Amino acid sequence: MADLFEDYRLGPGWDEMFGAPGMPRETYEALHATLQPLSSVELRVRAEVLARAFLDQGITFALKGVEGPFPLDIVPRIIAASEWRVVEAGVAQRVKALEAFLADIYGAGQVLADGVVPRRVVVTSAHFHREAAGISPHNGVRIHVAGVDLVRDEEGAFRVLEDNVRVPSGVSYVMENRRAMAHVLPEVFAATRIQPVESYPGQLLRALRAAAPIGITDPTVVVLTPGVHNSAYFEHALLAREMGVELVEGRDLVCVGNEVAMRTTGGEQRVDVIYRRIDDEFLDPVHFRADSVIGVAGLLNAARAGRVTIANAVGNGVADDKLLYSYVPDLIRYYLNEEPTLSNVETYRLEDPEVLEHVLDQLDRLVCKPVDGSGGAGIVIGSQASDSELAELRARLTADPRGWIAQREVALSMVPTLIGNRLRPRHVDLRPFAVNDGQRVTVLPGGLTRVALPEGALVVNSSQGGGSKDTWILAEPPSELSPVDLSTGIDPADPGDPADLDVPVLPRVPTPRSPDPGPGAGPVAEQQQQQQQSTRDAGAGEGRSAC
């Protein structure tokens, strides 16, 4: 074996490449055969080419105010087709259940009356917005895009870590990772049948067009961004460009008489669907933060009147609450009459005094998370915490049990990662992306694999210094191929509106940066940076050990 794997030791978790020392699993055989003859110098050179290409194309991520190339490891993560079928079914199942839940709590509230979820869990959530009550999208879709975070446990089984149905981000890096990897490891691509991810913009555009208000046959779709100072701005610009729609800021839109229009050089143009990448709190200063300068006044009233569709819907964040997460298996049984395909990580609800006492006795063996935390902030991994940190945590849990959950510490699975000039095992998680067009939930065959780069680290999110890997889903054997055309991602039996498939792709250029934000640049820039939900989910989602 080449010195790349010299002293490579299997870690405490499930090693996804090796079933035993020096023995690659079947899914990794082609990759292992490619890496084995390479020298560490050659692989490092390829890795440097990868990073340089990202920087040249403007594929960046801001970490602590410093913008740099999004960290992509050169060793991909590979998932077998049979394993992916389980993930795909489980993610779609959760999206359907959460769709039904959101429609229910902002409507009749039957799930609360039946006691499946305690009313207090919903009404005390920081992201439950009464302002969204009664707003019913005409095609019933509130979760147009979802990102469901998964981990593999010690036995290699996928488990759900959390759901992201507000403004989940990171899919741009999925597409860019694939484009870059095809150039630096072409020999592996030639030997491996990998399902493509390039169809995502077309799927998203089709879902957004399907969500247009009643009577609109040729809807105008826009992507609403907080602006250039937001650390996920690259993604906003890329998706708008590849869908062939306008990228707008709040100041580009005006709402009069419940009609939303976009200011253009040719005058105002009606807008029918807004794919927003702005948090609820900043979206409409009439109903939320009155000081918001990055939102659109009157937007929520226009949505209530059925004149514009906001994707994802306002108020979805209650389904992201980490306490609500613990009820999702019950919601699947309640709404779908099915057993969950993917299990949650074992979770403790601390509002029960007996459960709280049990957790306080085991703090050094559990992982505790604030229910509305983001970017890995606030997580305490008991086994890595000092006595003083555990004492502080104990006081916080006792004072605010509703604000926390506790989970067992899962030894996340590991994938070889280039550290210096050697391959070393590092912990990973996975965020698959699902698109709901009202007829079906489509799960992109891949996802954002995030990797904790420091040795032993369990927090993988980018805002904590983590990196990413390209995620390869192996294609089905020819005899088992589904009707989906793997070259396009389109089902020939249901290709959708042909017009929706004509998604123009403009020349690839670095993402533009505006030199002059205009009047009010101070508060605009500040709010663009404050508005970090899309950043949180961009590789930044909840960072992770077992929670």
Reported for the largest beta sheet, the result is:
5 strands, mixed
Whole-number average pLDDT?
86
Principal-axes geometry comes out as globular
Q: Which range does the strand content fall in?
A: 15-25%
Our measurement of the CA-to-CA distance between the termini, rounded to an integer number of angstroms, reads: 36 Å
The number of distinct helices, counting runs of at least 4 residues, comes to 18
Low-confidence segments: 480-520, 533-547
According to DSSP, the number of beta strands is: 25
Give me the secondary-structure category.
Answer: alpha+beta
Question: If you had to describe this structure to a student in words, what would you say it looks like?
Answer:
Pfam families: CP_ATPgrasp_2 (PF14403). This is Circularly permuted type 2 ATP-grasp protein. It comes from Plantactinospora solaniradicis. The protein is α+β, with helices and mostly antiparallel strands and 547 residues long. It is built from 18 helices and 25 strands. A five-stranded mixed beta sheet has the order 5-25-24-21-20. A five-stranded mixed beta sheet has the order 15-7-6-22-23. Strands 9-8-13-14 form a four-stranded parallel beta sheet, with helices on one face. The protein is globular.
Topology at a glance:
Layout: E1 18-20, E2 23-24, H1 29-35, H2 40-56, E3 60-63, E4 66-69, E5 72-79, H3 81-105, H4 110-113, H5 119-123, E6 145-152, E7 158-164, H6 171-184, H7 186-191, H8 200-210, E8 221-224, H9 233-243, E9 246-248, E10 253-256, E11 259-264, E12 267-270, E13 273-276, H10 280-283, H11 299-304, E14 309-311, H12 322-325, H13 328-336, E15 343-344, E16 347-349, H14 353-360, E17 366-370, E18 380-381, H15 387-399, E19 404-408, E20 414-419, E21 422-431, E22 433-436, E23 441-443, E24 448-451, E25 467-473, H16 498-501, H17 521-530, H18 533-536
Parallel strand pairs: 5-25, 7-15, 8-9, 8-13, 13-14
Antiparallel strand pairs: 1-2, 3-4, 6-7, 6-22, 10-11, 11-12, 16-19, 17-18, 17-19, 20-21, 21-24, 22-23, 24-25
Helix pairs in contact: 2-6, 3-13
